[in-house]
Predict the structure of dITP/XTP pyrophosphatase.
Amino acid sequence: MKPNLTQEKLVLASHNAGKLREIADLLRPYGVRVTSAGELGLLEPEETETTFTGNAILKARASAEASGLPALADDSGLAVDALDGQPGIYSARWAETDGSGAAGGKRDFGFAMERVQRELDGQSDRSARFVCALCLYWPNGDKLVYEGEVRGTMVWPPRGTRGFGYDPMFQPDGYETTFGEMDPDAKHAISHRADAFRKLVADVFDEK
């Protein structure tokens, strides 16, 4: 039996405004009523896992248990091939100018992109991928997990003011524009989050 997400609110287990906006946009066609962890006053759990999937499960479980509602969490980041997959699960932490690692700390992704560029100085390989893990978690402990990715190239200087995070520096394979330059609908069609979300939709919403 497919999970029913149309009879009650779904908690988006994130305090990241960019992620919340993208996930809400992806869910809109399916009539799901959404709220966010921030709107409910839920605390951000410390991300102690070593993988995107592990952190997605951790965040979704925390919001589901605290709210009594099903929760959807995203853990995603940038993995640069020449940097052995860094920044990876620490993608947001690379944007913390004070290096504190504290949840909810001030983040500057201009600073983070400059760091990526410095680390890539002298490297001929600028290939990278965005990775996304989604976890849908129910208060009874049931869960569904999906992973997606999109490959591309790191460009410099950054281009575009759309999107968020490292988007202005990431040019997806087969395109001449960065995520920061793309219309949001175009990005939603090909992004790592969209890839994972398509798999969720096939399980939860699509007719079999």
The chain has a mean pLDDT of 90. The first strand starts at residue 10 and ends at 12. The radius of gyration is 17 Å. The beta strands are 10-12, 34-36, 71-80, 127-137, 143-154, 170-172.
